[in-house]
Design brief:
Layout (H helix, E strand, L loop, with lengths): L10 E5 L5 H6 L9 H17 L3 E7 L8 E10 L1 H6 L10 H10 L8 H10 L2 E10 L7 H18 L4 E9 L3 H6 L4 E2 L16 E7 H5 L6 H4 L12 H10 L5 H8 L3 H18 L12 H18 L11
Parallel strand pairs: 4-5
Antiparallel strand pairs: 1-2, 2-3, 3-4, 5-7, 6-7
Helix pairs in contact: 2-4
Length: 325
């Protein structure tokens, strides 16, 4: 596999955009073993998922490289409803090639994406299950220092993209070559229904099933990436769907130009969203902003934004839907 040229890497990560999907298609792992029609349909499906929200689709890039080569790794995780967990036997011994079959079910309309309300209810009840469809790197040679740098960033991305949920379990499918770093992250290998089901397949097309439940995670001390995402407490502010989306995107680029484009709102609409966030924060915690905001009208907004973003960056539960009842 071709290695990046010698240079000083500028690693960063951010939510995947529609413009990234062509590179994402290039990076799909061989073990997915997709049928041609499914592979051709994936960009449209991914675009739909990006627009729907409520999933983690993150790109890890090296900004020192040309634009068409920047993405070095990416991954997709999604919440799955109880019916899906049962249909694919995620809590037990599933059949292999889960990710491919889940993609097919979504494409055929047999597996709807969870709504914000459904996700919020499952989250508040502690019944939420996440499934990692796939993670892949442009170069997976673990003897390469550059690749280890990408992998180190991937651990940070995984924590940031998944923490804050009230998880019951998280499951993960990967290839045989993924086992060293997935188990190092804290996800043990779990058995398939038929261990011999993949006999005869070339190694690059064989899959492994990984997973961790809340009980298993909390039986160990904090430290691993997988254990980290099971830390949780209820959100304080209970932001609306549009407010949470704004805050999530602003963590990666808080310029108004970027946010206007991604949220497809007017300047007035963006100001209204920020104002609603500040009002909600002050209604729940009147002393949140303190005296540091000052009296200068031109400084109050940016300073409030800075404080709110600093808070949600540390307290990811504020970015997750939460509906009691």
């Amino acid at each position: 596999m071709q290695r990046p040229p010698t240079h000083l890497p500028r690693f960063r990560y951010r939510p995947t955009t529609v413009a990234d999907l062509a590179q994402g298609l290039e990076l799909l792992p061989a073990w997915l073993d997709l049928e041609p029609d499914l592979r051709a349909a994936l960009p449209m499906l991914w675009e739909r998922l990006i627009q729907a929200g409520n999933l983690s689709m993150m790109s890890m890039e090296d900004a020192a490289l040309p634009a068409h080569q920047r993405i070095q790794a990416w991954g997709i995780s999604m919440p799955v409803a109880t019916a899906t967990v049962e249909a694919f036997r995620l809590d037990g011994r599933p059949d292999p090639h889960l990710s491919r079959r889940i993609y097919r079910a979504m494409l055929d309309g047999r597996l709807p994406v969870m709504t914000d309300r459904e996700l919020g209810v499952a989250n508040a009840r502690g019944e939420l299950v996440l499934f990692n469809l796939h993670f892949s790197m442009r170069n997976d040679d673990l003897s390469d220092a550059y690749v280890l740098g990408v992998l180190n960033m991937a651990h940070e991305v995984f924590r940031f993209g998944h923490r804050g949920f009230n998880l019951r379990a998280m499951y993960y499918e990967g290839g045989v070559r993924d086992e060293p770093y997935v188990t190092a992250a804290g996800f043990p290998v779990r058995p398939y229904a038929d261990p011999a089901a993949q006999d005869g397949l070339p190694p690059e097309h064989r899959t492994l099933f990984f997973g961790l439940t809340r009980e298993e995670a909390r039986a160990s001390l904090p430290g691993s990436t997988a254990r980290h995402i099971f830390e949780h407490q209820p959100p304080l502010f209970r932001f609306s769907t549009s407010q949470r989306r704004l805050l999530w995107l602003a963590l990666f680029d808080d310029s108004d130009e970027h946010l206007l484009q991604r949220l497809e709102v007017s300047v007035h609409g963006l100001k209204k969203l920020w104002r609603g966030i500040y009002e909600r924060v002050e209604s729940r915690m009147p002393d949140f902003f303190g005296a540091s905001v000052g009296e200068d009208e031109g400084k109050r907004g940016p300073e409030k934004r800075r404080q709110v973003l600093a808070h949600v960056r540390q307290r990811s539960e504020e970015l997750r839907p939460w509906i009691e009842g």
